[in-house]
Amino acid sequence: MERGKMAEAESLETAAEHERILREIESTDTACIGPTLRSVYDGEEHGRFMEKLETRIRNHDREIEKMCNFHYQGFVDSITELLKVRGEAQKLKNQVTDTNRKLQHEGKELVIAMEELKQCRLQQRNISATVDKLMLCLPVLEMYSKLRDQMKTKRHYPALKTLEHLEHTYLPQVSHYRFCKVMVDNIPKLREEIKDVSMSDLKDFLESIRKHSDKIGETAMKQAQQQRNLDNIVLQQPRVGSKRKSKKDAYTIFDTEIESTSPKSEQDSGILDVEDEEDDEEVPGAQDLVDFSPVYRCLHIYSVLGARETFENYYRKQRRKQARLVLQPPSNMHETLDGYRKYFNQIVGFFVVEDHILHTTQGLVNRAYIDELWEMALSKTIAALRTHSSYCSDPNLVLDLKNLIVLFADTLQVYGFPVNQLFDMLLEIRDQYSETLLKKWAGIFRNILDSDNYSPIPVTSEEIYKKVVGQFPFQDMELEKQPFPKKFPFSEFVPKVYNQIKEFIYACLKFSEDLHLSSTEVDDMIRKSTNLLLTRTLSNSLQNVIKRKNIGLTELVQIIINTTHLEKSCKYLEEFITNITNVLPETVHTTKLYGTTTFKDARHAAEEEIYTNLNQKIDQFLQLADYDWMTGDLGSKASDYLVDLIAFLRSTFAVFTHLPGKVAQTACMSACKHLATSLMQLLLEAEVRQLTLGALQQFNLDVRECEQFARSGPVPGFQEDTLQLAFIDLRQLLDLFIQWDWSTYLADYGQPNCKYLRVNPVTALTLLEKMKDTSRKNNMFAQFRKNERDKQKLIDTVAKQLRGLISSHHS
Prior knowledge:
Keywords: Coiled coil, Exocytosis, Transport
Number of strands: 2
Number of helices: 26
Strand content: under 5%
Organism: Equus przewalskii (Przewalski's horse)
Protein name: Exocyst complex component
Distance between the termini: 179 Å
Radius of gyration: 67 Å
Order of helices and strands: HHHHHHHHHHHHEHHEHHHHHHHHHHHH
Coiled coil: 82-109
Strand order of the largest sheet: 1-2
Shape: elongated
Helix content: over 70%
Largest sheet: 2 strands, antiparallel
């Protein structure tokens, strides 16, 4: 039962589905019926569907048949009417054909005329279109032609502007033409060509600038020199109001056009020709020598092309390289002033160009870049000057170099560069200049001292007297009253040395000019340098003369007199320095001249040399002494060598009349002491092993001759018997032995008022031993005589007592 119900339900569903498919077939386009039929064939009720489909077809056929039967009469009527219309239509066709034939025949000429008119209108439209297109293309071609002409004539900046107009204004209007595409393709190449050519011009400019930097610098330094000369002239006139030349005045106005179509110059010469200018004409401005248009053009070209930073970097890099080349001094720069001048000219030329670029372009170089270059230049320049100036031994060259450095510094200061370090370095060169001056004046002093005759200057007329007094500050009323001929007390080297000291001061003053130093600093510099001249150079020269081997006593005496007068002239040197520096000696921290000390030291050295020389002469005479220490004869006169020695001393001390009294007295006392000491050494020397009483008698005569010389007062100023005290040791020793007064000596020894106070027991024992040995040798048989035996015993006794005195003294 249930299975029957299920089968019935499935049959109903299948029937409904077939019905749906049939409706879909009836209403669906034939092209889309495939899927519908597929669903039928996919099912299992294909036969039943076919049956339903046949049934539906039969139904439709019956409906069609009914409809045709209903409309049949109308269809027949329509066919009858259509047959009637066909006849009329044939007539109409024949009429139309006839009419068309006639119309074609009649309108044939009109068609030809119309065809011709059509052709003319077409040509007219083409011509008009062509003219319009040509009107668009002609400006492009004209601009391109103009661009080529500008490239050909090297007007690169206008060419670049033309290229910009061509690219952005004209070419977009005709961009669909092939020749325009060629132009568009060439634009980057043209830009690169303009960049390359303008860069080539810039390189030529940089190379030209490098070669002509010295000329530019020379011109700038001439301008600075002219301005300084004008300033000096103004300073010498009543000053109403003057100012230092400003940096703006240093520039000469440029008429540089940086227009897009007309740069300043199309010829990239870099340096303008000024060689034919007359020397007496005004010196041209440093920038007038330079054509900067290549820089301006290249800068604008790269700016337009968007490569300004590349151009700035390249320019700065190349200029840095050129700066290093400029700052490299030649190895022989120190040999001539021209070497320094060319070096400075190149540096000034370099920075004049850079300063002008700084102020005439916007950002190509900036102040930081300039300051960096200047710091490098300053350090390298100062190092080079320190190195090369140290080789200079000519003070004139050093002075010229100083003036050149000052001009160099003033020139760059006008352009706003700080130059304090250069002036600081000049203070270092000042010390070197002082050293070279000292070396030069050492030679001058040496020549003066070597060529001097060391004799008082003879004067035969008033004119010569005034000339000498004009050269050296000397006043002596007694000498002025004396009639001609007369003599100055000093020799020629005094006024010569005095004037050379003044010349040295002038030379020091020359170096201090234009160094922006205060009067006090200049005064201090001059005084310190003059002190070095006096205490080192002049002092050494005098010492060398004094220590010379062949120097005579007369020369030494004259040197003492000369240094005395030079010492007195020191106050006039002080006044001379005060007058030229306007700094009073009483000013705080003012350095004092050490001339007085120098001349005192030289005089003391000369005095010592006189004492030494006198002693050497005495020694030379004493070498002629030829005593017979074994003689038994009693002499009657002094030895010949001693007589000659005394005569020499008398003549020598007679020359000392012009010396200060103390010097002459000291020399005389020193000579007498040395003579007494030498005689004592002669008597006691080890080579004299034996001597006789007769030899002592002869020696006593010589000592008496010396005492007579001392009593005669060879040099005035000694108190009574003062000079004789030099021989007191010899006198008491000889009296002791000749008078054989041993009892008194031994009894009074050690007492203040002892008769033989100056006799040392060691000396007495030494001399006694020599006499004892002589007595034993010459009197081998004297022991058999009572007197001789007693004398020998006495000598032994005295010797023993002397040894006791010596022992007690040591203990």
